[in-house]
Amino acid sequence: MVNPHGILYNPVSLTDALETYLTGRTYKTQDLFHNRGIWHSWDHHGRFSHPDRNEAIRNIHASQRAAISRLKEADWLILTLGTAWVYRLKSQGRIVANCHGVSSGEFVREILRPEEIIARLGNFLHRLSAYNNKVHVILTVSPVRHSREGIVQNNLSKSILLYAVHHLVNKFEATYYFPAYELIIDDLRDYRFFEQDLVHPNQQAVDYVWDHFIPFFLSSSSQTTLREVSEINRRLAHRPIFAQSDEYARFRNTLLEKMQELEACFDFLDFSAERKMVIEGGAFD
Length: 285
What we know:
Largest sheet: 3 strands, parallel
Number of strands: 8
């Protein structure tokens, strides 16, 4: 499960969202606000916004229920901090997860202190260990530059996040740091590894981080399984010149047998959709 509240950038909004999974909070229609014909939640990303207030709440509830269930059973939780800059809504005195296009004059921009981040995340980690005592936590800092804050302000923000994260890793057991930020900013160190906006890492950079993540956190047996599944995905992208040939029939049968073999070994793997596409011979999405 990825981002049950949608993408969240600052540690306050992130921990506020995580706390709702621990408490089982239910959002109500009065928690939403209306702006430019759309209903929004100050706690959620814009992907939950909707012209119909009831539909927005239904989508929030569905994601909330799934997150509560998943966090209770999770073995691993990855938390990525994006920025220490926050926007506080003047009318309510609260930090928002997303401004949703509301005028900047309605907010006060602030930067969090390391102590605030440590206190917020530390309290959550304490409660999480009681909620699910088998979960391990991976903390990372996003290498995406928050350029709208300015280069100097972005670097200040990232340094605060890094300080807070390392403090928490040293304090809590079963909590680890993965250096995605350093791999992009200090190891690659070149704008050719970024998209044209010079802010977001490109696919080559993402692959580079992933190649470091695999040996960092996956066991040897899991790495082997990953390679086998990746090989199936690679074969699924194959487009035959002659789909009715004996050669392609052998290729297809071998692929189906490999799927069945892996499903028999791992009950969490389900290739039913892929198997259907291979059997029907249609294009695989």
